[in-house]
Amino acid sequence: MATQQQKDWLRLHLTQGVGRAGIIKLIEAFGDANTALNKSRQDWQRYAGLKSLRIGSPPVEESKQFTSAWDKLTEHQGQIVSLWDDHYPNQLRTIHDPPALLYVCGTIPNNISIAIVGSRKASAEGKRLANETATTLSNYGVTVVSGLARGIDTAAHTGAVAGPGSTIAVLGGGIDIIYPPENRTLYEQIKHHGAIISEYPPGTEPLPGHFPARNRIISGLSHGVFIAEATLDSGSLITADFALEQGRDVYAAPGSVFNKYCQGNLQLLKQGAILTTEAEDILNFCHIGTYPQHIKQPPKYDQSKLSAEQNKVFDLLHATPLHLDHLAQESGLTAMEVSAIVLHLELEGLASSQPGGRYIRGSAA
Questions:
Q1: What is the pLDDT of residues 333-349, one digit of tens each?
Q2: Threshold 0.85, pTM exceeds
Q3: Domains annotated on the chain, with CATH
């Protein structure tokens, strides 16, 4: 899409009082963003049904608000995808309230997708289930959709990037704001394995009120939603409700009646969710392949692409976690040099960070 078109969409979106529904009405009335921007507020009221007293003026390109949002979009190599673009996600287009605009970093895959969601405060077993399910789905070429939050979301994205498939992270703030901040490396991996998307302009803080609306996009992008582990107050139950409204399948893992972390799952199962204990249950229900014949094996990484120093650190990594200081001591490099190297290795999938500043060999090795 041409730069001017992108700027027009952003100016329209930043116009006070317009919102998602207003953008749709304006495009239905005037055909495109540029034409709408050049119409008077009286025309907006007359032809698009927008009340002019509640509508502000679009920010000019030189304004601080516009410049800040545009700079953040270009800095992150993002783009704006509108509901009227051919490459808008087909699955999302079918819901009754699709976002008029999506801000995107990366490339939105156009294939079968499954959302994996759950609580931020999750058990080790719940995170393991989300991670392993995501990796298996990724091996089958299924896109894993989640929200980049702590807990189940993080485990799902991490599992997805460990396979050859793709993953989409839907944010509750601007695509330039990485939340939680400790997921910065994962954020970069997702950009290279799929897309970071949001319906909020760059610079928008991830406020609590944004997340229910974000959840409708997670389910809307997906052919089904798997609740790996959820408490009764988990926002992932809202995602499950949206999924049912949108005609998506809802899958839920069982758990002990005494386990507080999975009470939301048990509630969903009582309500008719599809009982799911492994990825194959989802694959079979969706009629995707026959395990294990259709698994795609990711190619091994070519170590010749690494520098001598990078190879030195990489060769030290194995299944046992090693502290950054130990890697520096064994490699003869400084801690700062090793820190930069392991970050590069993480982005390539050759290293995986563990709690306490420790690292193991990554799945692409």
A1: 998 999 999 888 888 87
A2: no
A3: 1-67 (1.10.150), 113-285 (3.40.50.450), 303-361 (1.10.10.10)
